[in-house]
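pinging the channel bc i need a second pair of eyes. not urgent but kinda urgent?? the chain im working w is below, pasted from the shared doc
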Amino acid sequence: MSKYAVIMALLLLFSLTGRAKVKTTVWDNPSTEYGSHYGNGNFLLDLDVSKVELKTDETMVHITARLRQAETDYAFQLTGDTYLKVGEKRFYRVLIDPKETKEKGLYELAIHFPPLPKGTKAFDFFASNNQETYQIKGIKPAEERWKQLFPSYWSDKQGNWKIAFLDDCAIYQCKFWDYRQCSVNQKTGEADIVMQNGNDIVKVSIGKNKKGIRTIQMGNQKEELAMITSRYMPDYPTKDMRTDFVDTDYKTDTVTVIGWIKDMPDFMKPQKTFGICHGNIYTDNEETVNADLDEKGRFMIKIPLLNSSELLCDWNLCNFNTMLEPGKTYFLLYDYKEGRRYFMGDDCRLQNELIKYPPCWDSNNFYIGLEGAGHASDEELEQYMTSVDSLLKVQTAQLDAFCEHHPTLSSRYRIFSKGNMLTNHAHSFGQARFRMRNFMLTDNARRYAHDTFWTKFEHPYTLHSSLSYFMSDYLDDVLRAHSKPTSLQIADYINDITSNDEEQALLTRWSKWINETNAKINAAPTNEEKKKLVEKINADNAALIRDISQILNRPKVQKFLHSMYTLHKMEKDSYLLDSMGIDPFIKNVWLTQTVLDTFEHDHSSLTPTVLDSMTAIINNPYSTALIEEANKHYLAIENREFDKQVLKSADHLAGITEGEALLKKILEPYKGKMVLLDIWGTWCSPCKERLSHSSEEYARLKDHNIQYLYLANHSPQESWENVIKEYQVYGPNVAHYNLPDEQQKAIESYLNVHTWPTYKLFNQNGELLDADIDPIDLDELEQQIYRMR
């Protein structure tokens, strides 16, 4: 052999020897557990370890980070406090290689660390991004997990979660099963188990582990099952092409959810209930059904649903949205220790896809970007429409790309996600009208709402919670645009509202006088002359106007007239909706909401005749039941006894017109006490919501010698009393005034009140204090009272 050949052979040997020193052990989709940070249901980001490369010169951890919510301005970046931990020793990261991904909200990182000790079988991962700390514990080869039977989770060939074997129970057929007998072959890993749930007993035989696959016989059913090692169910192996959802034709059925909020962190354990919230399309309200949690975090909840519906699973414990179909039973596992989020059931594929890949919630809000709190211009509304259109196109393209990247995602996932996107934008768009000068959309915006949103929605309309909000805004806007305001002719109801022949004759004369007077006013050539003529007519007929006002302002008369107003509005709306070709179901929903809104506004019952007329127009059993239930509720309130001494007469204020003087006179009896003033109205929903917490407020501040003073704005007598009774806004230190409108306006003008409710605090000398008061925040309110003493 020549010298040259010897040298080349030695170089080749050295080269091979050098390369042999860099050995790599690869863990694909390693087994992991998750740290306490994953106990936060509101957590923004998922971190998963997709691969680990253990080399002699370095360790590489491949991380996939996915946003759990749509955060357009979120940028994921790990800081220097990223390290691996083996025993007590830390290995800090050396380099991060980000991998570009076309999928929005997805980050793929290869993180380089120093080499771990030889023979390392497991390690923990710790990281932070200046905002949050992430912990992934127990990272080890998947093969190590495969050997483990307790705990373990198993799916069938179709990708459905079939069974789980945990330390103290099994989960199978959406039930918890106790172990009666359990025999495990320590060499082969085979096992025989007898499980019991009540009177049901099932024998389970578990075969050998073959790379995460085992043959498992459950009763008479024998299947090859694969171990589930990921936090979410893996993408299903084949595509489900179904496009339909359960449609009950809006006849109430029940969905059952059995679940386990497993290994809750200590700060969550004081919560003893699990709640699922869903919207009621008829009432336009959110309804929550709660179930007790046992000491292990288990629950069983039955939810009455009108149809397939979007629901929110407990805001505090889980905080995720899903879709459930009536008549079905689901099992939900929400595991804080291992981060597992699985659904089990006969048909729960979509639920598993939605919890793994939540739909986009981004939408453009017309309020954002507008200067000040004034009205928006038509041009700004046009610009808003353009931005909505642009974002919709971008999001649709992103959804299409995402589904292409995950080709086995079900057709129903894409349909639901697209519908969710559309209804969120529709909800925001419907609210845009409240920034316009007349609280109505322009004709062009109305056409855009119709073509872009309204025509795109299909049964079941309960599938997306935001849709009912858009329906209310859109129909209200359309009906106002296509009809004149509803009005009543008092002359048509003289016999219904008068008590005797004298009143009947007076109202008849007044009705004739009104017609003659309107003709004279309309004949005046200028607005200035019209104004002078009105002032003269009112002055010349002051006695008649006073007598008529006394009749028309009686509580029973006001109640009757408002009921008839609502009835006329329903008849008119029904005709218009039919002429527009609106779906009969949506028409019934709208008319039902009209009646329920009347109850909410008036806080009083309806007369039997009016009640029958309203339910006849709707002609829907579910609506009738809701309306009759509401009517019974307010009848019971009207018949409830309470101490009327809290209702103060305004007789001693007669003749006082200045706001400052009125307020001083009202405050006079309470010298020596701090006075908390609440200016509210029976027509104001936020006011009533705050009043519903009055008992808590009184109990909390009972030692502070406070006088509670309530001034009602433009509130009918009966409604006023009913609200006070319903929310128990009474007590020895409570006073209510329902002043004439002019006096109430004078006080509000003096106090610069423009929103309701408004709260003011006065010291023991009746002096107004400079304090921002919110009785809902009792901690802060009590601190302010201490400071103001």
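so Confidence is low (pLDDT under 50) at residues 9-18, 38-42. and The first strand starts at residue 24 and ends at 28. — does that match what u expected or am i reading it wrong
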